[in-house]
User: Fold this.
Amino acid sequence: MTATLPHHYYHDAAVFAYECEHIFRRHWWLVGTESSLAETGNYLALNLMKWPLVVVRDQQSKLRGFYNLCRHRAGPLVLEGTGHCRDFVCRYHGWRYACSGELLKTPGFEKGEISDPADMGLLPVRVDSWNGMVFVCLDGSAPDLVTWLGDIVSIAAGFDGTAAMHFDGDVIKPAAANWKTYGDNSCEGYHVGMVHRALGSSMLRESVDIDCYDNGEFVGFDVSYSSGKDQSRAGKGFWIYKFPGLLLHFADYAFNAETVLPLDSNSIQLQRWFWSHAEKAADNNIDTELIRPNSEQVIDEDINICERVQHNLSCGVYPGGTLSAQQEPGTIYFQQLVQRALSGFAEPEESGTKG
Assistant:
């Protein structure tokens, strides 16, 4: 018998604050696509948990990542979203920076007031790309991106990359659930028959064989589908949930990726990007126009159940539960990774009736 995580791990602000420093900033996060940052000066600005970030293509065509704050008095360089600029100009006092991070101008400052402008460049953040996707990491000592991905790289080699596909856009959805509530759900197929009835009817097998991969810390399972009524799901596929918040779905004719962005202890933002291989799909009589709406239906169904579970986890009466090694090995593995990362968390002395 395997016990579930304590319920307060899913809604306690102190736990979330610890996770920010000991989980979130130590991992790589998918933030966008290379195609959206293809031109010099193209940028993407976002808040990654509590950290304001900007990723840009500099004058040497190199991807750069920085904290989205001016070295003068922490003003924002750009607002959240995508855009294009020649240089970064602080929206507070007008300090100017090159896209490569160097300080260029300090309006109104006398010569010599800044002893060494070279030491006042933008604060860098690690950025890298893989399979057409852009990732950032806030920890300078964390493994490089390919090492972090682990066995995902070799699994991906069995499918076409995004370079051979058409980018079909993205979707952003908020969810009133803790990131672990969504992760627990995503790491098992036990719920599919109840929550995703259309998906369950098109799966080739009655049960999902889930494998746990230490090299990359992810859960993966084959999601080959029969043709059935749902032509958008026919063919070979492989589904991955990578700790702490990356989902990847490889298929013969399509690929999608999702980032699970924690906002606070009770909410997340999901962003999913879609690619499709229309020619290959057409050869197999698959309608790629159905891929995105069907995928969004699954996301909405997951959000709906996770929000209800989150409410119940937070109500104070759930004493904890039990996980099945046969039905929920992926969730067990996911929760083991959480427990390992939170091993240094000190419970408050006045913990009340936390379970």
In short: The CA atoms of residues 184 and 334 lie 7 Å apart. The first helix runs from residue 13 to 22.
